[in-house]
Design a protein that fits this description.
The protein is an alpha+beta fold. It contains 9 helices and 6 strands, in the order H-E-E-H-H-E-E-E-E-H-H-H-H-H-H. Strand 3 (104-109) and strand 4 form a beta hairpin. The longest helix has 53 residues, at 246-298.
């Protein structure tokens, strides 16, 4: 080290440069941009669709650039201030940042509309029926989407764009996000359908599993029904920027209608299965109760006589006769047989 000062200096410089690059690369990769300010940590990704291929913008400023998609972390600091600087109204900002909101579609003018959708939560440690929220704002040629937890639909679009296979325009990206949400919901329902189809083949049905599945489907239905109305309202309004995507949007509507019908069918099937199991259990309990009632009725006279003769007082007949017990058992047997004959004639047995 002492004898070679120059190489050692170069060595430490190179190490410092490598460390600096390793510290900066994750932030650049996360946003997909070359530069951004510290106040823009809320920005997850940005893509521009100005040309034939989607590209990553070199810089991001406070002004929205047409034909650009901004995907943001909803609960990050600085997002509200950035939206205000982009000349968005307070109600629109509140809708984009609200913690809990149902699916809906709102059109503000010919160039601005907001759509809120719910998707399956496939993140590790989360329940799928704890549906995530994706808010999409189209404002003057630019599109802003916000999320609190990662969405597989958005991740799929980002991966496609990174591979150069993604949508070619902002309108196509909008449709791809809606189709991705529907696709993941459909994939979630596949094992549910398989479980329901196998109910007739299973000898012993897990009632707890069915109850959990029904509870999840009911929570899904809570958000999927209004999601159908969202797409219906979108097609009714049909902003001019989405005019070329009307066929794809109708397919998305058909898909969500089919999903809703499937969820309703699965809920009805599970309800019918649980009702059938309940009826079988009730019938079994009634049959056992009836059997015990018959047994008690048959042995009621025998119990009466044995109790009567078992009274420990003077005057009980047959106490001095050694054949009295055998005669008494014979009479009890005849009584029981006689009762059984009467019950059969009366069709109680």
């Amino acid at each position: 080290m002492v004898g070679f000062p120059f190489p050692s200096c170069v060595y430490f410089v190179v190490l410092g440069w490598i460390f600096l690059q390793s510290a900066l690369c994750p932030a650049i990769e996360r946003t997909g941009m070359s530069t951004r300010t510290a106040e823009q940590d809320f920005l997850i990704a940005a893509w521009q669709f100005a040309g034939s291929n989607a590209t990553k913008p070199e810089t991001i400023n406070n002004q929205l650039v047409p034909a650009t998609w901004y995907h943001c972390q909803r609960d990050a600091d600085g997002l509200a201030k950035w939206l205000e600087s982009a000349s968005l109204s307070a109600p629109v900002i509140e809708s984009l940042l609200a913690d809990d909101s149902r699916p809906r579609f709102e059109q503000y003018d010919a160039e601005s509309f907001l759509m809120i959708l719910r998707g399956i939560n496939l993140n590790k440690g989360s329940e799928p029926d704890d549906m995530l929220s994706l808010r999409i704002l189209w404002h003057k040629g630019a599109m802003i989407s916000t999320r609190k937890v990662p969405s597989r639909a958005v991740s799929g679009c980002l991966t496609s764009l990174e591979n150069g296979e993604g949508p070619g325009s902002l309108a196509e990206l909008f449709v791809a996000l809606v189709k991705g949400i529907n696709r993941h919901i459909s994939d979630f329902l596949v094992p549910v359908e398989e479980t329901i189809d196998s109910l007739e083949l299973v000898e012993k049905i897990n009632v707890h599993e069915l109850n959990v599945m029904q509870s999840r489907l009911l929570r899904l239905r809570r958000y999927l029904k209004p999601q159908k109305y969202v797409l219906e309202d979108l097609l009714t309004s049909l902003p001019a920027v989405l005019a070329d995507q009307v066929v794809e949007l109708r397919n998305c509507l058909d898909a969500i209608v089919r999903i809703n019908e499937s969820v309703e069918f699965y809920i009805d099937q599970i309800t019918a299965c649980l009702l059938s199991l309940s009826q079988q259990q009730t019938e079994k309990m009634n049959r056992n109760t009836y059997l015990f009632s018959l047994i008690a009725g048959i042995f009621l006279p025998a119990t009466f006589f044995t109790g009567l003769l078992g009274v420990n007082i003077a005057g009980i007949p047959g106490t001095d006769n050694p054949q009295a017990f055998a005669i008494f058992c014979l009479l009890l047997s005849i009584t029981v047989v006689f009762e059984i004959i009467i019950l059969k004639k009366m069709r109680f047995i």
